[in-house]
Structure to design on (879 residues):
């Protein structure tokens, strides 16, 4: 029975210092992770609010709730917030920041003050973008295609672009910190082959952050300059090429989707191995697949531009490369499945979300391969088929992985157990709600319904109503964890150091960990996921 | 002087002599003069080749000696190579579009 | 403070020893420079695409560049790199006053570069060679009128964007070197700890490196017709 805990607490990173200054001026990676958790959750709900308005408008075929201009703003702002302010930082900035030093056996990240600066930059960028949104909005789509964004749009393009530009530096600095930490701060005995796959995945994502984000930064800067000074780099009437914008934009934005999914895949690796009580099948392959995804991800960007007017020969090259990039992701799915085979499966909440991830990510990933085919893409580009594809990988995949990770490490982060029954119910609602929302979109998209329109022909209404109904269920599935996580902070069962009997350095510290992580620098002598030698004690999970 | 390995890297052990820095400086000045001179000669399509070649030589000297890459860890070198590699990706794959657009217009 | 005490004072708590801190710090700086390379890289990509497509327009635009001012600026930056490298060496030898003098010389060269750049910018500005509604381009040779002024405007857009971004980095560099001088004279560095000096040096050389490519690409596109 959970009761409010009043016992004298051992020193940990949460109670070592009180007061707002101790949080706003902290350099402790664990506190910074929580600062990010708050900001990112806030942005998630704002982005979700725009999604709700979109789905409400699409209940009826007529554009009767908002004007088409307003609708353009709604999907733009939903996209900008969800991509740049939620998905990209979510796992790295919260779970990555918290766990990576613990997992490698370090006292903190390589550059703790840069880490704090990174959060401030994120928040400044978010406020800038939100200001642009509330003072009139942006209607270019999150993709900012020119020359509409540079010349013809009458909305706050520069404000939104500047907000994203600023937040981009937060991403760059986080990535830089992770790479340097993983190279230079590993404890004695923590070789690359013993590194948790969560670290490998975040390392690969960090490579992309560092290499790709500067390109979108300069591109958005050029858009802002063009808009402000009427320079014509992307405007065909002034000699520019609008497709050059798309090349530069997608050079980052395609690898960006791998920034989003790789950390999520890292979470899944950790969850699957723990709840199968088996080491990950093909550890080296999974680790190298992360790096392969990062590198190959940079070679495929123009598959977003097949019908934009690029040369068909270039399209052929990018189509072939896009097929290749699916391979390492498939390797991971096979290896997770093989890990579970003949394992001792426990159906705790993180594992439920992992099951959801594996299935839904596979669907999303395969539909991505359909899109890589030139012939198919001509038919379904800019339809709801694409919308369904990326929501399957991003929401069915990434957000589920994020939920899996939050649940898995919540006891470690907060020292409290969440209520398992409610958590399982939420997972189920998310799964049902998600599929009800997005599967119909595959169908209407294939039937030809274009995206980014506030009105549609009446024959598509039934499936759209189904989709909106699904969205309501999905929303409930997301609201419940907000409630029970907050509830658990005060009333949750105090968590033991290792509630799931998992293998990993982070589980060898108390829950929550002390400020300096380890009393003595650990010396690692065991292989990763050494579940064969982990004693099979009774796993304590609160109910 | 032994090249530092990752385990025994000690930046204080290696001081680059002034004479080497001055030599590099002189080489850079000479190459600058050379590239200006080459621009006064009509070499058609090779103008750009020569210019970029000289610029790359100058850049290599700056990176190796002024930025101490010659005396740095392998990891640092990998970082520099990675930058060049991804730049080349961005340039070359973008150019697959621009260089082949004209090919399609001949198909009517 | 003594040599070792400076290092001990600068050692941060999450590092095992100064060697680890030094390696980490330098690696971090190189990673940052990698992001800067990609940042400028986007502009170089745009340059490459437009130059390949509109070569003649670019040739005509670059004829308007003052090759002597550009070459002088290149030489100025190379000299500043030498003084910077020597300054870092002085810090490595534990000689803060010598370091300060050499870094001051570096700043002088840096400001010289910015001054010459300002002169060039002024020249282009009064000649209406700034993109936008007021842009107006003429080759100045009645026998060879401008073939493609629309795309020459793109050339100038890239010229201003690339050199402007570079100049901004120079200004930041001057600020960073100033900070190092002040901290150095205040006794912050020693033979055992001079990583910030080394890192600012890396930044400065990187900015020089960018210019090494900008100069031929913007100023030396083709045979100069006539002087300067």
């Amino acid at each position: 029975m959970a009761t409010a805990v009043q016992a004298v607490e051992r020193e940990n990173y949460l109670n070592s210092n009180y007061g707002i200054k101790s949080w706003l001026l902290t350099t402790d990676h664990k506190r910074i992770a929580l600062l990010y958790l708050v900001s990112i959750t806030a942005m998630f709900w704002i982005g979700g609010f725009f999604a709700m308005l979109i789905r409400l408008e699409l209940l009826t075929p007529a554009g009767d709730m908002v004007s088409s201009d307003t609708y353009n703003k709604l999907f733009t702002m939903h996209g900008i917030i969800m991509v740049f302010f939620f998905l990209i930082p979510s796992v790295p900035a919260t779970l990555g920041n918290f766990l990576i030093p613990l997992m490698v056996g370090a006292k903190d990240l390589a550059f703790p003050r840069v880490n704090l600066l990174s959060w401030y930059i994120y928040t400044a960028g978010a406020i800038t973008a939100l200001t642009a949104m509330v003072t009139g909005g942006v209607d270019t789509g999150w993709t900012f295609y020119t020359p509409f964004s540079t010349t013809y749009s009458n909305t706050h393009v520069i404000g939104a672009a500047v907000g994203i530009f600023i937040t981009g530096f937060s991403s760059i600095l986080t990535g830089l910190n992770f790479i340097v930490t993983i190279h230079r701060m590993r404890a004695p005995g923590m070789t690359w082959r013993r590194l948790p796959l969560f670290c490998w995945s975040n390392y690969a994502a960090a490579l992309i952050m560092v290499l790709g984000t500067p390109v979108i930064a300069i591109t958005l800067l050029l858009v802002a300059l063009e808009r402000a000074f009427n320079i014509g780099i992307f405007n065909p009437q002034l000699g520019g090429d609008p497709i050059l914008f798309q090349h530069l934009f997608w050079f980052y934005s395609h690898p960006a989707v791998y920034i989003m999914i790789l950390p999520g895949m890292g979470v899944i690796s950790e969850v699957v191995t723990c709840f199968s009580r088996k080491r990950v099948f093909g550890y080296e392959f999974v680790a190298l697949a992360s790096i392969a995804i990062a590198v190959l991800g940079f070679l495929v960007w123009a598959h977003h531009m097949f019908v934009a007017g690029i040369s068909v020969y270039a399209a052929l090259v990018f189509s072939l490369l896009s097929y290749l990039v699916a391979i390492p992701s498939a390797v991971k799915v096979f290896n997770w499945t093989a890990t579970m085979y003949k394992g001792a499966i426990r159906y705790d909440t993180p594992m439920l979300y992992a099951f959801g991830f594996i299935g839904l990510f596979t669907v999303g990933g395969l539909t991505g391969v359909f899109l890589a085919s030139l012939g198919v893409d001509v038919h379904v580009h800019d339809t709801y088929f694409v919308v369904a594809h990326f929501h399957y990988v991003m929401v069915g995949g990434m957000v589920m992985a994020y939920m899996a990770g939050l649940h898995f490490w919540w006891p470690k982060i907060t020292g409290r157990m969440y209520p398992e029954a409610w958590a399982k119910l939420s997972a189920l609602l998310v799964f049902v709600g998600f599929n009800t929302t997005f599967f119909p979109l595959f169908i209407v998209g294939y039937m030809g319904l274009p995206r980014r329109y506030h009105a549609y022909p009446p024959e598509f209404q039934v499936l759209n109503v189904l989709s909106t109904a699904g969205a309501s269920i999905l929303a409930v599935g997301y609201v419940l964890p907000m409630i029970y996580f907050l509830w658990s902070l005060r009333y949750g069962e105090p968590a033991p150091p290792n509630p799931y009997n998992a293998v990993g350095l982070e589980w060898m510290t108390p829950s929550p960990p002390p400020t300096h992580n380890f009393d003595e620098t650990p010396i690692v002598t065991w292989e990763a996921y050494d579940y064969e030698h982990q004693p099979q004690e009774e796993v304590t999970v609160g109910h | 002087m032994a090249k530092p390995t990752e385990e025994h890297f000690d930046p204080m052990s290696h001081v680059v002599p002034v004479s080497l820095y001055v030599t590099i400086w002189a080489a850079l000045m000479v190459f600058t003069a050379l590239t200006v001179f080459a621009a006064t000669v009509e070499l058609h399509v090779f103008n750009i080749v020569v210019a970029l070649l000289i610029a790359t030589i100058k850049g290599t000297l700056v990176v190796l000696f002024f930025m101490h890459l010659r005396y740095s860890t392998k990891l640092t070198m990998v970082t520099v190579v990675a930058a060049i590699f991804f730049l080349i990706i961005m340039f070359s794959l973008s150019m697959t579009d621009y260089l082949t657009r004209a090919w399609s217009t001949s198909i009517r | 403070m003594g040599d070792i005490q400076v290092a001990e004072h600068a050692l941060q708590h999450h590092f095992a020893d100064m060697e680890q801190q030094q390696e980490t710090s330098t690696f971090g700086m190189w990673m940052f420079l990698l992001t800067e390379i990609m940042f400028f890289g986007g502009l170089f990509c745009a340059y490459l695409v437009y130059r390949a497509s509109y070569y003649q327009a670019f040739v005509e635009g670059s004829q308007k560049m003052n090759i002597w001012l550009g070459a002088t600026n290149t030489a100025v930056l190379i000299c500043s790199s030498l003084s910077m490298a020597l300054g870092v060496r002085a810090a490595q030898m534990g000689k803060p006053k010598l370091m300060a003098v050499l870094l001051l010389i570096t700043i002088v060269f840096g400001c010289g570069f910015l001054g010459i750049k300002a002169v060039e910018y002024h020249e282009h500005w009064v000649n209406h060679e700034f993109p936008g509604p007021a842009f107006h381009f003429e080759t100045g040779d009645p026998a060879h009128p401008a073939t493609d002024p629309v795309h020459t405007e793109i050339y100038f857009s890239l010229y201003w964007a690339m050199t402007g971004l570079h100049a901004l980095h120079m200004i930041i560099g001057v600020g960073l070197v100033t900070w190092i001088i002040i901290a150095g004279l205040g006794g912050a560095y020693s033979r055992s700890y001079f990583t910030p000096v080394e890192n600012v040096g890396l930044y400065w050389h990187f900015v020089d490196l960018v210019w090494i490519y900008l100069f031929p690409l913007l100023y030396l596109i083709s045979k100069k017709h006539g002087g300067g």
